[in-house]
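Narrative of accomplishments. A recurring question from our advisory board has been how the design workflow behaves on a single, concrete structure rather than in aggregate. To address it, we present the structure tokens for one chain from the evaluation set, followed by the sequence designed for it. No filtering or post-editing was applied between the two.
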């Protein structure tokens, strides 16, 4: 197997949780094709992701999705120069499905494969857009499992500026929706309901904004909403008003922390990534703040905020092009510190 930087398209596989994503990315031509299969219906009856069911469904859908994506890109497996897959963090069984399939494909084709950090994929997702950020910048990674502020000195060189002390932002969205009786997945349902609510009727605290620092905590906010809901008349209008109050508190907290991080780091660019990055109110408030305060903010398109294969293909292509290869051993990391990644030293331009 050659250890020279690749110049062919890279296949990306994402299987860290409950979505099977496959994409083909070429450093010269960009994103050639991507496909996504969501397991939302499979897990809806359980009110959350069942790891064993998720793993089995990845087994069922992954290879057909690979074939479909390659056909959409007008390619065969022989046209590939490498395979990238999510190696962590995530559900261990789901990760192993993607890792084993990627390794087997790479071995059979005698091409390199590389495990990608799931959060680096999210962080680099804005590079899929025509107007892409250039380091240094601050990144807000907000999803069901993470709420982090990252200082990006260069691609592959990351500093943790702030983290959640309890619930992640997306997790708080989902749990709050569940306690108010909204269907699974709750986060998007709560955001839709909030659009119908009256602003100001319920005002909740902006956690940890009354003290210095960049860490997050959302468990107390969730408790405030629970008490407000339990003591309310539980009408449709009230539920929408509580949802509006929760979303406003969440978005305002994220906005305040982002502005603090930019000030502390001296960066002039902000990247928003992860599933909560698709939230309309968050995007609108940060875009308004950027215009008012003179920094630039970058968002992936909504379909690339949630888990997807395109971000994994991109991150893998950048690392493979820089000559970074993994050995043939299959490794996954259900927990994986983003700061442990190898710095990227590109062989050429991004």
């Amino acid at each position: 197997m050659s250890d020279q930087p690749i110049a062919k398209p890279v296949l990306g596989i994402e299987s860290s949780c409950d979505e099977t994503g496959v994409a083909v990315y070429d450093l010269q031509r960009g994103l050639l094709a991507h496909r996504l299969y969501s397991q939302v219906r499979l897990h809806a009856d359980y009110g959350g992701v069942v790891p064993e069911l998720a793993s089995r469904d990845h087994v069922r859908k992954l290879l057909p999705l690979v074939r479909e994506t390659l056909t959409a890109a007008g390619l065969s497996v022989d046209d590939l120069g490498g395979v990238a897959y999510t190696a962590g963090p995530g559900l261990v069984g789901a990760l192993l499905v993607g890792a084993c399939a990627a390794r087997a494909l790479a071995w059979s084709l005698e091409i390199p494969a590389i495990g990608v950090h799931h959060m680096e994929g999210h962080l680099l997702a804005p590079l899929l857009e025509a107007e892409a950020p250039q380091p240094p910048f601050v990144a807000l990674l907000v999803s069901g499992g993470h709420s982090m502020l990252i200082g990006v000195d260069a691609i592959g060189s990351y500093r943790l500026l702030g983290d959640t002390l309890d619930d992640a932002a997306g997790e708080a969205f989902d749990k709050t929706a569940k306690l108010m009786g909204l269907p699974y997945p709750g986060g998007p349902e709560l955001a839709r309901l909030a659009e119908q609510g009256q602003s100001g009727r319920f005002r909740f605290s902006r956690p940890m904004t009354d003290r210095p620092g960049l860490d997050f905590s959302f468990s107390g906010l969730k408790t405030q909403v629970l008490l407000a809901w339990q003591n309310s008349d539980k009408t449709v209008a009230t539920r929408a008003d509580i949802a509006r109050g929760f979303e406003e508190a969440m978005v305002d907290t994220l906005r305040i922390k982002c502005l603090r991080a930019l000030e502390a780091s001296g960066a002039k660019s902000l990247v928003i990534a992860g599933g909560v990055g698709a939230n309309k109110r968050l995007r609108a408030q940060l875009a308004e703040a950027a215009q008012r305060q003179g920094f630039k903010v970058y968002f992936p398109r909504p379909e690339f905020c949630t888990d997807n294969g395109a971000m994994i293909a991109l991150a893998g292509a950048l690392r493979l092009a820089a000559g970074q290869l993994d050995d043939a051993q299959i490794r996954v990391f259900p927990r994986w510190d983003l700061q442990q990644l190898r710095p990227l030293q590109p062989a050429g331009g991004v």
